[in-house]
From TrEMBL:
<dbReference type="Pfam" id="PF00925">
    <property type="entry name" value="GTP_cyclohydro2"/>
</dbReference>
<feature type="domain" description="GTP cyclohydrolase II">
    <location>
        <begin position="252"/>
        <end position="395"/>
    </location>
</feature>
<feature type="compositionally biased region" description="Polar residues">
    <location>
        <begin position="1"/>
        <end position="13"/>
    </location>
</feature>
<protein>
    <submittedName>
        <fullName>Uracil-regulated protein 1</fullName>
    </submittedName>
</protein>
<dbReference type="InterPro" id="IPR000926">
    <property type="entry name" value="RibA"/>
</dbReference>
<dbReference type="InterPro" id="IPR022163">
    <property type="entry name" value="GTP_CH_N"/>
</dbReference>
<dbReference type="GO" id="GO:0005525">
    <property type="term" value="F:GTP binding"/>
</dbReference>
<feature type="domain" description="GTP cyclohydrolase N-terminal">
    <location>
        <begin position="29"/>
        <end position="219"/>
    </location>
</feature>
<comment type="similarity">
    <text>Belongs to the GTP cyclohydrolase II family.</text>
</comment>
<dbReference type="GO" id="GO:0009231">
    <property type="term" value="P:riboflavin biosynthetic process"/>
</dbReference>
<keyword id="KW-0342">GTP-binding</keyword>
<feature type="region of interest" description="Disordered">
    <location>
        <begin position="1"/>
        <end position="22"/>
    </location>
</feature>
<keyword id="KW-0378">Hydrolase</keyword>
<keyword id="KW-0547">Nucleotide-binding</keyword>
<dbReference type="InterPro" id="IPR036144">
    <property type="entry name" value="RibA-like_sf"/>
</dbReference>
<dbReference type="GO" id="GO:0003935">
    <property type="term" value="F:GTP cyclohydrolase II activity"/>
</dbReference>
<dbReference type="Pfam" id="PF12471">
    <property type="entry name" value="GTP_CH_N"/>
</dbReference>
């Protein structure tokens, strides 16, 4: 029996010893962190903002044996899913040294390159060459360096009941190009995982890089000590959700100044987007934007929906539900006047999405002008405009698309600066905007 094994052999069937991935690849020496001058540490050069992929160099974050000393980035690939990969390795379902077979995984459509890809200030939260691992870095792959894509581009069909309704209303037509005869939408999809260039992220928020590194280290429980010990490594792959881009029409039209672009930037709201909660306008606004994007594509332009994983204003779903409870239970009921106050009482801040990084994906797509921006958010609007992209028209959610219980949210946001073509409510008016109480909700 192995040392430390408490299994009772008399009551358990004998288990044949197996050569597990852990036994093969892990040794007793655990490397908690590394240092710039440490023996064997020779990072592959990485020049963020270089004019070409080869001049920039690959992002290498793997701790595998044949890549460890060549790492030029902190963190782990896969975003929030890196933890599941670790679990798969721990239980023996995945070999730690598994290398993907990238055969036939290349992008279905060509996007870029655009000038912003080589501008170290325009794109700081994603790897602009993250979809071209095999194309540009095959030499490193052949040498055994573990490099993983952080962007994938594919195409698909989208089936929504609301699109069927839009077809019946005559808003959309079955043209065979954007909408199939079966009522499905043809889309190009882009998935992107976060890759942060730390000096650029710090500059975007107007803070010191050292402050950013310390905060990331402390508030992840010290998970990434190289944030402190490796100031020479400027790239960090954070364990957070990424984004998905849905393109309606020809992706080449996005950067074409002669083509109209309709766009929505949407932050995840699982309760509404997927399960139809009516306490907010998220799903109705998302569906409305998809209809508008598809219509723009049918009219010769292009439509884009960018879907960020920032659940509950990046506060998380647990915090969001705690806020819901506080809103419904407060004295006087759920009022627009106290909408943000309840969030601040629970979370300490009303919003942690901090849209300063959001425009990066737009620059990656080659966006220069948005003809119709399907959003009322002043924060998103300002971040996009401040990044150098022109917005021609801002489009509010139609009144008839708003669920009754969402009035609290939307009126509070309008009073706080959201775009509207209607009246901006006063403080007294906000007190009169109330959501329903739990007794009125059918469970």
């Amino acid at each position: 029996m192995a040392q430390g094994d408490t299994t009772d052999a008399s009551t358990s069937p004998p288990i044949e010893p197996v050569d597990t991935p852990q036994q093969r690849l892990y040794n007793s020496r655990v490397v908690l962190t590394t240092y710039p001058s440490q023996l064997g540490i020779e990072p592959i050069p990485l020049h963020w903002g270089a004019p070409t992929a080869s001049a920039r160099g690959p992002v290498v974050v793997s701790r595998s044996q044949d890549t460890f000393g060549k790492r030029n980035a902190i963190g782990a690939g896969g975003g929030s899913y890196c933890i599941y990969r670790a679990l798969a390795v721990a239980i023996g379902a995945l070999a730690p040294n598994h290398r993907p077979d990238f055969t036939m995984t290349e992008p279905t459509h060509q996007i870029g390159p655009f000038p912003a890809w080589s501008d170290p200030e325009k794109i700081v939260s994603m790897d602009p060459w993250g979809h071209a691992t095999v194309e540009h870095y095959s030499e490193f792959l052949d040498q055994g360096v573990d490099i993983r894509p952080t962007i994938a581009i594919t195409k698909a069909h989208m089936k929504l009941a609301e699109i069927d309704d839009a077809i019946q209303r005559g808003f959309l037509r079955r043209d065979g190009e954007i909408v199939t005869e079966g009522g499905e939408l043809k889309v190009v999809k882009v998935a992107s995982e976060p890759v942060w260039y730390l000096p650029g992220v710090a500059q975007r928020f107007g803070i010191e890089e050292s402050t950013l590194r310390r905060a990331l280290f402390e508030d992840t429980g010290g998970m990434y000590p190289e944030l402190i010990t490796r100031p020479d490594l400027k790239v960090f792959l954070p364990p957070i959700g990424g984004l998905t881009v849905y393109i309606f029409g020809d992706p080449a039209h996005i950067s074409d100044p002669t083509k109209r672009l309709t766009m929505r930037v949407h932050d995840e709201c699982n309760g509404s987007d997927v399960f139809g909660s009516d306490i907010c306008t998220c799903k109705p606004y998302l569906v409305y934007s998809i209809e508008e994007c598809a219509r723009e594509a049918q009219n010769g332009g292009v439509g884009v929906v960018v879907y960020f994983r920032k659940e509950g204003r990046a506060l998380g779903e647990v915090t969001k539900y705690l806020v819901y409870n506080a809103r419904k239970r407060q004295e006087g009921g759920d009022t627009a006047a106290n909408y943000f106050k309840r969030t601040e009482f629970v979370a300490g801040v009303k919003d942690m999405r901090f849209q300063a990084l959001m425009p990066d994906i737009l620059h990656w797509l080659g966006v220069k002008r948005i003809d119709r921006f399907i959003s009322m958010s002043n924060m998103k609007y300002q971040a996009i405009v401040d990044s150098g992209i022109e917005i021609i028209e801002r489009v509010s959610i139609p009144e008839d698309r708003m669920p009754a219980d969402s009035k609290v949210e939307i009126e509070a946001k309008i009073a706080d600066g959201y775009f509207t073509t209607g009246e901006v409510p006063t403080g007294e008016m906000l007190k009169e905007v109330k959501g329903r109480n739990w007794d009125e909700i059918a469970h």
